[in-house]
Amino acid sequence: MKKIGKFQAIMWSIALPGFSQLLTGHFFKGTLFVLTEILINVYSHFNTSIMYSYLGEFSKAEEVINYEWLLFYACLYFFAMWDAYQYEMPADEQLSFLPFLSAAAFVTLGLIYSSKITLFGQSLDPVFLPMMFVIPGVVIGFIIRYILLKFSNEKRSYI
Q1: How far is CA 8 from CA 32, 44, 68, 86, 127, in A?
Q2: Are 105 and 134 in contact (CB under 8 A)?
Q3: What is the distance in angstroms between the CA of the first residue and the CA of the last residue of the chain?
């Protein structure tokens, strides 16, 4: 199996879940990720919602989106990124999944609350608000990882 590097693995997974796996020779897993992304994208009407969001028609974006299908998107997206990353990471790296897990959870929360939170009398966008939740999700994941690793290293030094 071919190695492509952690940064490149993440970038290809951002382009489309499964691309990194295909590049590294994990054809079954890569194909499964790509097909699942297409399935979720089509049934959630995500591209149409993205189009309306970029045009500033947030109420139309909210009308066309299928939240039941779109809730799967963040989990697939960040799992595919983590899978690509973990294939490239050193064997002694620990808890690297936490930033990805936290980001997926925060994006999902952003999606859930995008229709509930209003700004100037209009509900927030189901595309941009979840994307903005990536940053605090990743940051909190790294903080939790740092605390857990520091605690586990301190615990080992006392033994």
Answers
A1: 20, 28, 31, 12, 25
A2: no
A3: 39
The answer to whether position 124 is within a domain reads yes
**Which residue range(s) make up the domain with 149?**
6-158
Number of structural domains the chain divides into? 1
Please check whether residue 1 lies inside any domain of the structure: no
Q: What is the DSSP letter of 122?
A: E
Strand partners, 122: 119
- Give the predicted TM-score (pTM) of the model: 0.83
Q: What is the C-alpha to C-alpha distance for residues 46 and 30, in angstroms, rounded to an integer?
A: 21
Backbone angles phi, psi at 152, to 5 degrees: -70, -35
- Is there a domain that residue 105 lies in? yes
pLDDT in tens, 90-134: 788 889 999 999 999 999 999 988 877 777 766 678 888 898 899
d(CA 83, CA 75): 12
